[in-house]
Design brief:
The chain is built from eight helices and twelve strands. The protein is α+β, with helices and mostly antiparallel strands. It folds into two domains: about 15-215, Sandwich (Immunoglobulin-like), CATH 2.60.40.3880; about 225-255. The strands form three sheets. Strands 2-12-11-4-7-8 form a six-stranded mixed sheet. Strands 1-3-10-9 form a four-stranded antiparallel sheet, with no helix packed on it. The longest helix has 29 residues, at about 230-255.
Length: about 260
C-alpha cells in the first residue's frame, strides 16, 4: 500500500508543469508620482526578470501582460437624445466602479497571450476591469454605458491598450513603459504583472504606485475637503483681489497715456 501511495505521489508530482516554478521579479523606475502645479504627466518604466528553478520549458513561449489601474470610482453615465429639436438626457446609469486610469501592456496581441477565461477571472482587459454588474440589474443595455466610459476615457488618454509594447528577451528579461497623463486622480495605482504560456497565467506579481498631490496643490486639496467654507471664502477673496488688481493696472495704463 505504501508503494502504491508513493507511486501516486510521484505521478502527481511529475504531472505538475515546469511553468509552476516560474516567478516574476519586478522593478520600477519610480513607485511614487508627485502631482505639482507644472505636472504634465509621467512615464513609469517597468523592468523585471523570470526566476526559475528549472530550465526554460519547451512548448509555448513565455508572454508578459502588465496592467496598471487607478482607484475605482462609481460613474454616472447619461445618454442624450434629440427630442423636438433639443438634446436632452433620456437615460442614466450608475456604473459600480470604473478605474480612474487603466493601462494594459502586452508582449503580443492580447487575445493571443491571454485566454478569455483568464481575462475574465482576473479582470485584466479594459472591458473586464469596469464593474457594471450592479448596473445590469437596472438596465439591460448597461454594457453600452460601460463602453461609453471606455471610449471617453480612451480619448482623454486615461485608458490605453498597448499590444506588443512589452519586450521579452530570452524568455527571461522583460521591460515596458507606461505613460501616465497629467489629469491623474490621486490614490494608489495597482500594478499587476502576469506571466502566461499558451494563454494561461503561470505567475502573477502585484505592487502599487503612489500618486499624490504635493506642495501648495496638496494644501488646497486638503483645505477644500476638510474646510470647504474657508476654501470658498479664500477663493472668493482671491477672485476679488485679482479683479481689483487687474482694474487698477489698466487704470494706471490709461492714465499713463
Amino acid at each position: 500500500m505504501f508503494r502504491n501511495l508513493l507511486a501516486a505521489v510521484t505521478l502527481l508530482t511529475a504531472s505538475v508543469p515546469a511553468t509552476a516554478n516560474e516567478e516574476v521579479v519586478l522593478g520600477l523606475s519610480q513607485n511614487r508620482v508627485a502631482i505639482t502645479a507644472n505636472f504634465d504627466g509621467s512615464e513609469i518604466l517597468l523592468f523585471g526578470a523570470v526566476k526559475r528553478e528549472d530550465i526554460i520549458p519547451d512548448g509555448d513561449p513565455l508572454e508578459v501582460v502588465v496592467a496598471v489601474s487607478g482607484p475605482l470610482e462609481p460613474v454616472s453615465v447619461r445618454k442624450k437624445d434629440k427630442k423636438f429639436g433639443i438634446w436632452i438626457n433620456t437615460e442614466s446609469v450608475t456604473i459600480d466602479g470604473a478605474p480612474s486610469f487603466y493601462a494594459v501592456a502586452t508582449s503580443g496581441p492580447l487575445r493571443e497571450v491571454l485566454s478569455l477565461d483568464e481575462d475574465k477571472a482576473n479582470r485584466i482587459s479594459v472591458e473586464n476591469a469596469i464593474d457594471s454588474i450592479g448596473a445590469r440589474f437596472e438596465k439591460s443595455n448597461a454594457v453600452e454605458f460601460a463602453e461609453a466610459i471606455t471610449r471617453i476615457r480612451t480619448n482623454n488618454g486615461l485608458y490605453s491598450v498597448q499590444e506588443g509594447s512589452v519586450k521579452v528577451e530570452e524568455q527571461t528579461l522583460f521591460r515596458t513603459s507606461i505613460a501616465m497623463p497629467a489629469n491623474l486622480t490621486e490614490g494608489d495605482y495597482s500594478t499587476r504583472v502576469f506571466l502566461t504560456r499558451g494563454g494561461q497565467i503561470v505567475s502573477e506579481y502585484q505592487t502599487q504606485i503612489d500618486v499624490r498631490k504635493v506642495g501648495l496643490e496638496r494644501f488646497l486639496y486638503n483645505l477644500s475637503r476638510q474646510q470647504p467654507l474657508i476654501y470658498g471664502l479664500l477663493s472668493l477673496a482671491i477672485a476679488i483681489f485679482a479683479g481689483w488688481g487687474a482694474s487698477a493696472f489698466f487704470r494706471l495704463v490709461r492714465e499713463g497715456r
